[in-house]
Amino acid sequence: MIEGMNPAAIFLAGALLLPFFQEWPRKILILSIPLFGLVQLFTLEAGNAGFIDFLDYRLVTLRIDALSLVFAAIFHVAAFVVALYALQVRDTIQHVAMLVTAGAAIGAALAGDLISLFIFWELTAIASVFLIWARRTEQSFSAGMGAHGSDPCPAHVRDSPAPSRGARMPADARRRRAARPAAALADRRHAARWSTGVRRLDARTERRPHRRPQVPRRAVERVVVSLRARLSPQRRHA
After folding, report:
1. Whole-number Å distance between alpha carbons of 132 and 75
2. Could you give the percent of the chain with pLDDT greater than 90?
3. How far apart are the first and last CA of the chain?
4. Do the Cβ atoms of 4 and 41 come closer than 8 Å?
5. What residues contact 35, with CB distance under 8 A and at least 6 apart?
6. 99-137 core/surface letters (b: 16 or more CB in 10 A; e: else)
7. DSSP letter assigned to residue 61
8. Whole-angstrom Cα distance, residue 186 to residue 3?
9. How far, in Å, CA of 63 to CA of 107, rounded?
């Protein structure tokens, strides 16, 4: 492989070339980039490389030692797993943002000075925000703003003074707060009683067979006795 080249450059170059590929060539490119980067990583020799002179300061974009080698290898494996999952996604923006995020993270793991680390770290944050926004929903936009460092708390809530421990709520607010649970509890109890009564009525109806209404025996006896008492004087008179 190329001597002294940071494996992050392979990811960034692949992200630039990815929009020009379609379907299967794009999938092959997505899977091959982490593999080429991993091969490039293990062919590098220990030490510093990738020097860039900038404003009387020499940036060291590549430093290979035992610790950076381990973390860079872990990032390559994770990037390959994510690339496998990304094969089912048909969104160029998500693919490009994923490659840029992985490449910037690898570059941060292999950075040899603080400025290079800061540049790769910020590139990771920016690319991850675009990766979240690529979902194109309101929730993803809010999550991206939170990940970018924006304060999701409204200003009137953030700037309002915190209530003291002994502070009391206004009277009308206390009444509304106490009435809501009571009304909800009453509704639940009424619904429970209604459902219980319906279930009991259904159970009684199922147990009792359908019968014709019968007149009570005592009422019949009373009617018979009264009729006999009325008819007996008439018989005697006759």
Report:
1. 19
2. 33
3. 140
4. no
5. 80
6. bbbbbbbbbbbbbbeebbbebbeebbeebbbbbbbbeee
7. E
8. 78
9. 10
59: left (phi over 0), alpha (psi -120 to 50) or beta: beta
- Counting every residue written for the chain, the total comes to 238
For 131-150, the pLDDT digits (tens) are 888 877 777 777 777 655 55
Q: Please give the average per-residue pLDDT across 96-100, as a whole number.
A: 92
Chain-centre distance for alpha carbon 150? 19
Q: Quick count: other Cβ atoms within 10 Å of Cβ 8?
A: 29
- For the stretch 75-91, pLDDT in tens is 999 999 999 988 888 88
Q: Which residues contact 201 (CB under 8 A, 6 or more apart)?
A: none
Burial of 147 (0-12, 13-18, 19+ CB in 10 A): middle
pLDDT at 143: 76
Pairing mode, if any, of strands 47-54 and 57-64?
A: antiparallel
CB-based contact 63:111 (threshold 8 Å): yes
Interval 176-203: pLDDT, tens: 656 556 556 666 666 666 566 656 666 6
- Residue 75 CA, distance from chain mean position: 24
CA distance 81 to 113: 29
